[in-house]
From TrEMBL:
The keyword Hydrolase applies. It catalyses: Hydrolysis of terminal non-reducing N-acetyl-D-hexosamine residues in N-acetyl-beta-D-hexosaminides. Gene3D superfamilies: Chitobiase/beta-hexosaminidase domain 2-like (3.30.379.10), Glycosidases (3.20.20.80). It comes from Bifidobacterium callitrichos. This is beta-N-acetylhexosaminidase. GO terms for biological process: carbohydrate metabolic process; glycosaminoglycan metabolic process. Belongs to the glycosyl hydrolase 20 family.
Length: 678
């Protein structure tokens, strides 16, 4: 079977390279045993325990675990006699009426075969289809990159839950993105109040990942994206623009500059402290120094150095020093590739050992930058995204298009692997569970790219396997619901943060408005207004410009409301049939959809206040949408949202998100009082 057609009743993700169906059914014994060979390298028999847990959940039966040739089991887990003749991670799975055998080339291979078997048990219970599978991964590295720093720090329990899911879908690497949310010694001013991860958390999680075949690679910002550190009294002098350290906190501002002034030798001491302190907690032989988006390099304190040798040379020299520092400790450096691609001459200056993480998130991305790195001879890992940032609902279609293209280019240009990224810009409003569809698409494409060429087919498979949805419709409904996001979280944050806190306009935020829409959707008249530098508009004018810019999207709010309500009803009906196994996901879906309905109403209301409704068909209806009721609905929704937040995350920056919602609620009530007086 080639895996391209939808399977009846059950499915496997990622799809195996080859699978042959055999006649008959293998019925699991009532009192069975799993024999796991010591040679598998699973010292605590975690893989056997995973199978036992799934057998219990699917059948209610209790099984035993043993090892050695005197304790035969109906399920046998073992290693190939000649493992070096097969690629790492490869395995065979045989299911017959006499028993089940998983044979791996190595520990990772056994693990991968066990995950395939677990998926079958979850769907088929004690009656497994007889079949023979021979399987291997397309990419050596199949990684996931999780943002744990821009507002949401996961609980250790949730991190373990996520590691379990990554294991089930055969990922073999995980990185946690850290800027300021790790409790480094001597840096409490940077991480205070962020619910930071601790050394104990990392040690425990590193062990947990390793036992499940996941390499936990340390990743920390060492060059750019040091917003919180460079706002402190202790470290602000190391930034390019220390004079900006006392500006009010802003979600959008956090995403912009905040690069080290590398002409100050103390900057290198800070970077190496972060590296040296952090790497000791991990068993991995790799380290990701990040070094991305150093937007203000050479523009502030280091401008004299930039004028003398150039920004590209500055960047190449600094990251090379960091890479050499790692190499002296036996670590292989990794770094994001965006700056090197912006200045291609950097590619020739980087150490040969460095792995470039080539991130490209455009759903219609071309192969240009993947080809550029390949032609330079550098080792690269292609990095698409699950497309959840800045939104309550996941943009599944964008994730599909981005991930499938990047996997294809990675295979074409012989990339070492794929690292699927999951970002949380602007406070990480996106619930981590919204990333599950994109994560599973990434798993499929990293293992067997192009084998499932149809998005609708892929979403049906995920709906059945992950969400126990017999209809296969759940993710299609969720994907369609995301198209009804007319006024989104980043639109609201932009509207609020145009206020500089002193009744003026934050011009930095004003400059970001153009990026809120794709180039082909940007209204020319508003673009001309934004590009007019002869005067700075007032706060009211700036907000009106924003709403004019988004008016064609905002105008769809009422039509979208019907789609969102229908989606909520259909998803609730589907998840009810799946039972308590996906209750958490069901609640997350409901809260996200209701939140988007409210955001759409807020957009319509703000547009009405700003006089933009003259161009909107829905203006008459907006006059009847009582602002006080909308404010109350937002506050009630935030309570439900906060409850869901606590299911996966520490307090971290939840309060900042609450402040966004409460500020809007206060504005709605205030504006309503003014209108009632008039």
């Amino acid at each position: 079977m080639n895996g391209q057609t939808p399977l009846q009743g059950w499915t496997i993700v990622p799809t195996p390279q080859t699978m042959q169906h055999k006649a008959g059914i293998a019925l699991l014994p009532m009192c069975g045993r799993i024999n796991e060979a010591r040679a598998a390298g699973d010292d605590r028999y975690i893989l056997a325990a995973q199978l036992i847990d799934d057998i219990r959940a699917a059948t209610g039966l209790e099984w035993d675990i043993a090892t050695g040739d005197r304790w035969p089991g109906f399920i046998t887990l073992t290693i190939l006699d000649n493992p070096h003749a097969h690629p790492s991670g490869s395995y065979t799975l045989d299911i017959t009426s006499d028993g089940v055998t998983v044979v791996g080339a190595d520990f990772e291979g056994v693990r991968n075969g066990v995950q395939t078997l677990r998926q079958l048990i979850r769907q088929c219970g004690a009656a497994l289809p007889c079949l023979h599978i021979e399987d291997r991964p397309a990419f050596e590295t199949r990684g996931y990159y999780l943002d744990v720093t821009r507002g949401r720090v996961p609980t250790l329990d949730w991190l373990k839950t996520w590691a379990d899911k990554l294991c089930l879908y055969r990922y073999n690497q995980l990185q946690l993105y850290v800027e300021h949310t790790f409790a480094f010694d001597g840096m409490s001013e940077t991480w205070r109040g962020s619910s930071p991860l601790t050394p104990k958390d990392i040690l425990e999680f590193d062990d947990y990942c390793a036992e499940r075949g996941l390499e936990l690679v340390p990743s920390v910002s060492t060059f750019g994206h040091l917003y919180m550190a460079l706002r402190t009294q202790s470290l602000r002098d190391l930034g390019e623009f220390p004079e900006s350290a006392d500006e009010p906190f802003g979600f959008i501002d956090r995403m912009r500059h905040h690069t080290l002034n590398i002409s100050d030798e103390r900057a290198f001491a800070l970077s190496t402290k972060l590296i040296d302190d952090y790497l000791q907690l991990f068993r991995s032989d790799k380290f990701n120094i990040c070094a991305d988006e150093t937007f203000d390099l050479g523009k502030g304190r280091s401008k004299p150095l930039a004028e003398r040798i150039g920004v590209a040379a500055m960047y190449a020299d600094y990251v090379t020093r960091l890479c050499r520092h790692l190499e002296t400790q036996g670590k292989q450096p990794m770094m994001w590739g965006d700056i090197a691609l912006e200045h291609p001459e950097i590619l020739e200056q980087l150490p040969e050992e460095v792995i470039l993480l080539n991130w490209q998130y455009d759903p219609q991305v071309t192969d240009e930058k993947i080809r550029t790195v390949a032609e330079s001879g550098a080792t690269q890992i292609v990095c698409p995204a699950v497309w959840c940032w800045n939104a309550l609902l996941p943009r599944i279609d964008d994730a599909w298009n981005n991930i499938t293209r990047m996997a294809r280019y990675g295979a074409q240009y012989q990339a070492q692997g794929m690292l699927v990224t999951d970002w949380g810009d602007l406070g990480h409003v996106n619930d981590p569970r919204m990333a599950i569809p994109g994560m599973i698409i990434g798993a499929q494409e990293a293992w067997n790219p192009g084998r499932v060429p149809d998005e609708a087919d892929m979403l049906r498979r995920i709906s059945r396997l992950e969400y126990h949805d017999a209809s296969g419709e759940l993710l299609d409904i969720l994907a369609r619901a995301s198209h009804a996001a007319c006024f989104q979280w980043n639109h609201l944050v932009t509207w609020l943060e145009l206020d500089d806190g002193q009744d003026g306009v934050n011009t930095g935020v004003l400059q970001t408005i153009q990026g809120l829409l794709p180039e082909n959707e940007r209204p020319d008249d508003v673009i001309r207004t934004l590009q007019n530098e002869s005067r700075t508009p007032s706060l009211a004018e700036s907000r009106r410009i924003l709403l004019r810019y988004l008016k064609h999207h905002i105008a769809l709010g009422e039509t979208a409301d019907h789609l969102l309500q229908t989606s909520a009803r259909r998803i609730s009906a589907i998840t009810a049939t799946a039972g308590p196994r996906i209750a958490g996901n069901a609640a997350a879906f409901r809260v996200a959809i209701e939140g988007q309905r409210l955001l759409n109403r807020v957009g319509l209301r703000l547009a009405s206040e700003a006089g933009v409704t003259g161009t909107l068909q829905s203006c008459e209806a907006i006059q009847h949408d009582d602002a006080a009721n909308l404010a109350a609905a937002l506050e009630i929704w935030m309570e439900a949202y906060a409850a869901q937040w606590s299911m996966t995350s520490r307090d971290s920056e939840l309060q900042r998100l609450q402040e966004v919602v409460f500020r809007v609620a206060d504005h709605l009530r205030s504006a309503s009082r003014v209108q009632s007086v008039l």
